[in-house]
Amino acid sequence: MARPGGQGDLVVLTIGAYGHDEQSFFRALVGADVDTFCDIRQRRGVRGSRYAFVNSKRLQQSLAELGIRYVHLKSLAPTQEVRAAQKEADKAEGVAKRQRESLHPEFAAAYRKECLENVTGAGVLASVPADAKRVALFCVEELPSACHRSLAAEWLAGYAEAPIEHLVP
Question: Is residue 1 one of the residues assigned to a domain?
């Protein structure tokens, strides 16, 4: 599909950290020919050593070594208030964050209203290099269906008329 503005074909991919180790995470990106990595987290750190490879500075260094560009798209990160809607739903359903398999409809509605309605596809793509072809949206959850990155990917792919690929462990 053509990128708006005649900028070539674009594929929107998603990837999470959980479920990967460092090697499998970067192998997945390289194997999918990702050229631009978009971090859509509000806070770009993860506690503990198991996922330290996705802490911002270390992540950016590793991506640079692989020739993959890094972009922080904070505009696509859910606010603390929006995240609270999912946290409350998880608590009410007795589901731990890492065991969640899908987003609660309240979270999805809040994310679309508070985040996606305040940005434009053109604005987001203006933050991504014009020659980007395979753009990965990143957050930490293992399953795209349990993470806002699936909503952001659907929205961006709809704007850009691009296919979506989810990279899962």
Answer: no
Domain that holds residue 40: 11-167
DSSP codes, 27-87: HHHHHTT--EEEE--SS---SSSTTGGGSHHHHHHHHHHTT-EEEE-GGGSPPHHHHHHHH
Report percent pLDDT > 70 for the chain: 95
Domain count, the chain: 1
Residue 97 lies in a domain: yes
Stated pTM of the model: 0.91
Spatial contact of 24 and 113, defined as CB atoms under 8 Å apart: no
Q: What does the pLDDT look like over 38-47, one tens digit per residue? A: 999 988 888 8
